[in-house]
Amino acid sequence: MGNCPKGQEKQAGLCYTPCEEGYTGVGPLCWRNCPSDFTDTGTGCTKPTYTRGAGTIPTGCPEGQENDAGLCYPKCREGYKGVGPVCWGVCPPGFTDIGAFCQKPAAYGRGAGFVSEQLCLNSNDHGAKTNGCEKYGLLWYPKCDPNYHAVGCCICSPNCPAGWTDTGTGCTKPSYGRGVGTVPSQCPEGQENQAGLCYEKCKENYTGAGPVCWGDCPPGMTDIGAFCQKDTINRGAGTIPPISIPWWLWAIPLIIVLLLIGGFIVRVIFSNRKPPPAVVNISQAPELRPLL
């Protein structure tokens, strides 16, 4: 067998067009090469893998929501705090939170009263000169401090926030519903949610499947789970290489022809020559003796 023509390669005794870069030829097919960290199985590539740990339950909520007791709810508006599906008003500073109520700070007394406004102002009792005085019944009393109001003649009680219900010693919190909670689905930064659990994100060119990160199939290959099926290019049927004959074999026919021609020439030459005269034995021809 001879060599293949220029621009072709020899494989299993046949000549083929070389495969393009990134492919390896096997007979008439060019198979895509596996990446360096993959294992070549012939028709495919085994994906590389690494583990990323056990998944954890998500605790993060979508934007605009908050986690309360393991469920996500819309955040309450300003001045309210969520407890499960209900948003409750926040107690003012100095008040004690007792669930659905805010217990007031201690009330204070404003004295026994004065018979005239002037006497009340002159006394400066309980800030009368600053706050002024007001009449209740027949007597005058110092006005309550800001954020306080009179209860009866003589007691100043803290005010409840506007819109709240005053119970005397406390304030009933306003409330509104914020819907049914949903299961958290957001994972911490750098993690991803898969099948309801949070895992560390896989490094570049890897895709997570539960606790395992699998190498991505290169473009052109088919993903079949733990393997990547190679794509192929048909480069055509191989051709038989031209027969290479040594130079001296080419000379044999010429030599034979020359020998044939030479033999023919010799035969021609010898066929045209006259035969030499015959030698007569006188003893065998007595009739010639008288001539001697």
TrEMBL record:
Using the record's annotation, list all stretches that form the 4Fe-4S ferredoxin-type domain.
140-170
Q: PANTHER family of this UniProt entry? A: LYSM DOMAIN-CONTAINING PROTEIN (PTHR34859:SF2), UNNAMED PRODUCT (PTHR34859)
Transmembrane annotation, as ranges: 247-270
Q: Which organism is it from?
A: viral metagenome
Keyword Lipoprotein in annotation: no
Q: Which UniProt keywords apply?
A: Membrane, Transmembrane, Transmembrane helix
The protein depicted here goes by the name 4Fe-4S ferredoxin-type domain-containing protein
